[in-house]
Amino acid sequence: MLNLKGKQVYLRALEPEDLDFLYQLENDTSIWEISGTLKPYSKKVLRFYLENAHRDIYDVKQLRLCICNMKSDCVGLIDIFDFDPKHKRAGMGIVIAKTDERNKGIGAEAISLVCDYAFSLLDLHQLYANILEENEASIHLFEKMGFEKIGVKKEWIRTSTGFKNELMFQKINSNAS
Protein backbone atom coordinates (compact mmCIF):
# COMPACT_ATOMS: atom_id res chain seq x y z
CA MET A 1 0.00 0.00 0.00
CA LEU A 2 1.36 3.40 -1.01
CA ASN A 3 1.62 5.90 1.82
CA LEU A 4 1.72 9.65 1.27
CA LYS A 5 2.98 10.22 4.79
CA GLY A 6 6.56 10.79 5.83
CA LYS A 7 8.24 11.59 9.14
CA GLN A 8 7.72 15.37 8.93
CA VAL A 9 4.94 15.82 6.39
CA TYR A 10 2.07 14.15 4.65
CA LEU A 11 0.45 14.93 1.31
CA ARG A 12 -3.27 15.29 0.83
CA ALA A 13 -5.79 16.44 -1.75
CA LEU A 14 -6.88 20.05 -1.84
CA GLU A 15 -9.94 20.83 0.26
CA PRO A 16 -12.39 23.76 0.16
CA GLU A 17 -10.86 24.91 3.48
CA ASP A 18 -7.57 25.55 1.62
CA LEU A 19 -9.02 28.59 -0.15
CA ASP A 20 -7.31 31.22 2.03
CA PHE A 21 -3.95 29.40 1.87
CA LEU A 22 -4.20 29.03 -1.90
CA TYR A 23 -5.29 32.67 -2.29
CA GLN A 24 -2.30 33.88 -0.27
CA LEU A 25 0.17 31.64 -2.10
CA GLU A 26 -1.09 32.26 -5.64
CA ASN A 27 -1.06 36.02 -5.04
CA ASP A 28 2.47 36.09 -3.58
CA THR A 29 4.27 38.15 -6.22
CA SER A 30 7.66 36.89 -5.03
CA ILE A 31 6.94 33.48 -6.61
CA TRP A 32 5.17 34.65 -9.77
CA GLU A 33 8.39 34.43 -11.74
CA ILE A 34 8.77 30.71 -11.07
CA SER A 35 5.07 29.90 -11.37
CA GLY A 36 4.47 31.80 -14.59
CA THR A 37 1.71 33.87 -12.98
CA LEU A 38 0.95 37.17 -14.69
CA LYS A 39 -1.94 38.53 -12.64
CA PRO A 40 -3.62 38.10 -9.26
CA TYR A 41 -6.19 35.35 -8.73
CA SER A 42 -9.58 36.13 -7.23
CA LYS A 43 -11.10 33.98 -4.52
CA LYS A 44 -13.96 33.25 -6.93
CA VAL A 45 -11.58 31.74 -9.51
CA LEU A 46 -9.70 29.78 -6.84
CA ARG A 47 -12.98 28.52 -5.33
CA PHE A 48 -13.95 27.18 -8.78
CA TYR A 49 -10.50 25.58 -9.08
CA LEU A 50 -10.95 23.87 -5.70
CA GLU A 51 -14.41 22.64 -6.71
CA ASN A 52 -12.79 20.88 -9.68
CA ALA A 53 -9.57 19.73 -7.97
CA HIS A 54 -11.03 16.25 -7.48
CA ARG A 55 -10.88 15.49 -11.21
CA ASP A 56 -8.76 12.52 -12.26
CA ILE A 57 -5.12 13.02 -13.26
CA TYR A 58 -5.80 11.03 -16.45
CA ASP A 59 -8.46 13.59 -17.37
CA VAL A 60 -6.83 16.90 -16.43
CA LYS A 61 -3.16 15.80 -16.75
CA GLN A 62 -2.20 17.33 -13.43
CA LEU A 63 -2.43 16.78 -9.71
CA ARG A 64 -1.84 19.31 -6.95
CA LEU A 65 -1.34 18.15 -3.37
CA CYS A 66 -1.04 20.06 -0.11
CA ILE A 67 2.11 19.51 1.91
CA CYS A 68 1.03 19.38 5.55
CA ASN A 69 3.11 19.20 8.70
CA MET A 70 2.16 16.74 11.42
CA LYS A 71 0.04 19.43 13.08
CA SER A 72 -2.07 19.42 9.87
CA ASP A 73 -0.94 22.92 8.87
CA CYS A 74 -0.64 23.33 5.12
CA VAL A 75 2.95 24.53 4.52
CA GLY A 76 3.21 24.20 0.75
CA LEU A 77 2.04 22.66 -2.48
CA ILE A 78 3.53 20.02 -4.76
CA ASP A 79 2.32 19.48 -8.30
CA ILE A 80 2.49 16.86 -10.97
CA PHE A 81 1.80 18.51 -14.33
CA ASP A 82 1.96 17.69 -18.05
CA PHE A 83 1.09 14.11 -17.11
CA ASP A 84 1.70 11.98 -20.19
CA PRO A 85 0.65 8.34 -19.64
CA LYS A 86 1.64 7.29 -23.17
CA HIS A 87 5.27 8.34 -22.72
CA LYS A 88 5.11 7.69 -18.95
CA ARG A 89 6.41 11.08 -17.85
CA ALA A 90 5.31 14.19 -15.98
CA GLY A 91 6.67 17.45 -14.63
CA MET A 92 6.97 18.25 -10.95
CA GLY A 93 6.91 21.55 -9.09
CA ILE A 94 7.02 22.44 -5.43
CA VAL A 95 6.67 25.52 -3.27
CA ILE A 96 7.04 25.88 0.48
CA ALA A 97 5.04 28.97 1.40
CA LYS A 98 7.06 30.51 4.24
CA THR A 99 10.79 31.07 3.95
CA ASP A 100 11.34 30.01 7.58
CA GLU A 101 9.88 26.57 6.71
CA ARG A 102 12.44 26.01 3.94
CA ASN A 103 15.72 24.07 4.27
CA LYS A 104 14.27 21.80 6.96
CA GLY A 105 13.78 18.66 4.87
CA ILE A 106 10.10 19.31 4.17
CA GLY A 107 10.58 19.73 0.43
CA ALA A 108 12.86 16.70 0.18
CA GLU A 109 10.36 14.50 1.97
CA ALA A 110 7.47 15.78 -0.18
CA ILE A 111 9.45 15.13 -3.39
CA SER A 112 10.33 11.64 -2.17
CA LEU A 113 6.65 10.88 -1.48
CA VAL A 114 5.57 12.15 -4.90
CA CYS A 115 8.33 10.20 -6.66
CA ASP A 116 7.16 7.04 -4.90
CA TYR A 117 3.56 7.80 -5.90
CA ALA A 118 4.42 8.64 -9.51
CA PHE A 119 6.75 5.69 -10.04
CA SER A 120 4.69 3.09 -8.14
CA LEU A 121 1.05 4.00 -8.65
CA LEU A 122 1.16 5.99 -11.91
CA ASP A 123 3.88 3.71 -13.31
CA LEU A 124 5.84 6.67 -14.70
CA HIS A 125 9.22 6.17 -16.30
CA GLN A 126 10.44 9.68 -15.52
CA LEU A 127 9.76 12.93 -13.73
CA TYR A 128 11.25 16.27 -14.68
CA ALA A 129 11.56 19.72 -13.12
CA ASN A 130 12.18 23.10 -14.72
CA ILE A 131 14.21 25.41 -12.50
CA LEU A 132 15.51 28.94 -13.06
CA GLU A 133 19.30 28.91 -13.33
CA GLU A 134 19.64 31.31 -10.40
CA ASN A 135 17.44 29.25 -8.04
CA GLU A 136 20.30 27.55 -6.22
CA ALA A 137 18.11 26.22 -3.40
CA SER A 138 15.80 24.35 -5.79
CA ILE A 139 18.72 23.08 -7.85
CA HIS A 140 20.35 21.72 -4.70
CA LEU A 141 17.07 20.16 -3.54
CA PHE A 142 16.32 18.35 -6.80
CA GLU A 143 19.92 17.17 -7.21
CA LYS A 144 19.82 15.85 -3.63
CA MET A 145 16.67 13.94 -4.54
CA GLY A 146 18.37 12.19 -7.48
CA PHE A 147 17.34 14.49 -10.32
CA GLU A 148 20.01 15.03 -12.95
CA LYS A 149 20.53 18.22 -14.96
CA ILE A 150 19.88 17.35 -18.59
CA GLY A 151 19.80 20.71 -20.34
CA VAL A 152 19.55 24.47 -20.43
CA LYS A 153 16.74 26.37 -22.09
CA LYS A 154 18.51 29.61 -22.95
CA GLU A 155 16.66 32.87 -22.31
CA TRP A 156 13.51 30.80 -21.75
CA ILE A 157 11.70 32.82 -19.08
CA ARG A 158 10.88 36.48 -19.64
CA THR A 159 10.95 38.55 -16.46
CA SER A 160 10.76 42.22 -15.59
CA THR A 161 14.58 42.31 -15.68
CA GLY A 162 15.00 40.44 -18.98
CA PHE A 163 15.22 36.84 -20.09
CA LYS A 164 16.50 34.08 -17.82
CA ASN A 165 17.80 30.60 -18.48
CA GLU A 166 15.81 27.64 -17.24
CA LEU A 167 17.46 24.35 -16.36
CA MET A 168 15.77 21.01 -16.91
CA PHE A 169 16.26 18.21 -14.40
CA GLN A 170 15.12 14.63 -14.82
CA LYS A 171 14.77 11.54 -12.67
CA ILE A 172 14.42 8.18 -14.36
CA ASN A 173 12.56 5.38 -12.60
CA SER A 174 15.12 2.59 -12.56
CA ASN A 175 12.35 0.07 -11.83
CA ALA A 176 10.15 1.07 -14.79
CA SER A 177 9.33 -1.31 -17.58
From TrEMBL:
Source organism of the structure: Flagellimonas pacifica
Classification via SUPFAM superfamilies: Acyl-CoA N-acyltransferases (Nat) (SSF55729)
A single MF term (Gene Ontology): acyltransferase activity, transferring groups other than amino-acyl groups
N-acetyltransferase domain residues: 9-173
One Pfam family cited in the UniProt record for this chain: Acetyltransf_3
Top-rank lineage group of the source organism: Bacteria
Taxonomic path: Bacteria, Pseudomonadati, Bacteroidota, Flavobacteriia, Flavobacteriales
Identification of the protein by name: Diamine N-acetyltransferase
Gene3D superfamilies referenced in this protein's UniProt entry, alphabetically: 3.40.630.30
Keywords: Transferase
